[in-house]
Here is the input.
Amino acid sequence: MNRLFYRLNPTQILALGFATLIILGTIFLSLPYATAQGTGSGIITALFTSTSAVCVTGLVVEDTGTFWSPFGKTVILLLIQAGGLGFMTLTSFFALAIGKRISFKERLHIQEALNEYKIQGIVRYVKYIIIMTFIIEGIGAILLSFKFIPQFGLEKGIVFSIFHAVSAFCNAGFDIMGNYSSLTNYRGSFIVNITVMALIVLGGLGFNVIYEVIRKKSLKRLSLHSSLVLRLTSGLIIIGFILIFVLEYGNMDTLGGLSLKEKILSSFFHSITPRTAGFNTLPTDQLTTGALIITMLFMFIGASSASCAGGIKITTAGVLYYNMVSTIKGKKDTEVFKKRIPQEIIDRAIVIIVLSASWVVFVSLVLSITEKNTEFIVLLFESMSSFGTVGLSMGITPELSNIGRIVISMSMFVGRLGPLTIVLALSIRQLKNNNKYRYPEEKVSVG
Here is the structure.
């Protein structure tokens, strides 16, 4: 096994690690006492749930709060935490806990998994990620307990607070409220909305961005990556809030019958949650067509690299946007905040977007065959949600056929790792710029 580890490249290790976690979760969730009735869930349901938890998605074919036993919910929570931290971070943590030395090869794998440019200090960085995760989740659980303990009692209130704090920070979207209700009963609760939104945003920023903000203590000294993430995240939240508020204001099935306070909170919440969180305070299947399109766009974009997010990542979309702006202005280089983006980053962003869009189209096409008599926009929404590891649904998930559930499980796996990572993991050799010659250049008309 150790020899196999050293023969695999970092992307293969990452894919194999997540697959291993999913298989282990499937085994535990298949046990009879993992369900509330003690009858077992069936292998497909267990596989789907395990994949959704490890890939921090939140799509479910059975209601988490009522179908699973305390043991099953504990397994789901552990899978969410493991999936949020990442396989290499988790294994490194256990290795450090038992006093094992992290080899240079293992450090390279950690570096690749965390999207870091430097290997120096990578083990210290892993320790920071673990500590930071538990501190943020702990604070979130304490804040949520002010609402949940008075409502559910001490023991149940603590359990609910911890579960939803972990699920929110890991951008998983799993809830144990029961009856697929998510957080719709708390659309007017200031403390629940603000706490969950803050946890989602922090989990979506990425560990490297949070680390840099804390370490440098000044937004002006941040790297281009962190500056881009913070500005684009803020911009999308504000734009999303305005659009949802306007589009749903008169919709009596969503914002129409709510107070102004609830309208504002729900609009902000729905602006944040599609970028891979999966909780909802508004009924997704009752949204207007315009709001559904905005939601799908946000799900496709996702949050930041090296975070708990899926999708193409906000930095990928940002790089392509600034490349477009620079091209329109007639500039040869892609310029962002008086910095120049290397061409290889632009090329990588284009490949990621093309592969991602192709995958979503493919999944939607397969679902249109397996899930007959279902509107295409519902299938497209499900495809976007699974790829973006979001967890929002228009209600079709529990009704999916076995083939449909397997396809969506695959989509969640691809979305969590990223399509380019999957391609590189399956390829015999990594892509390298080792051409010893170049062909003659010739222009092609485009546009």
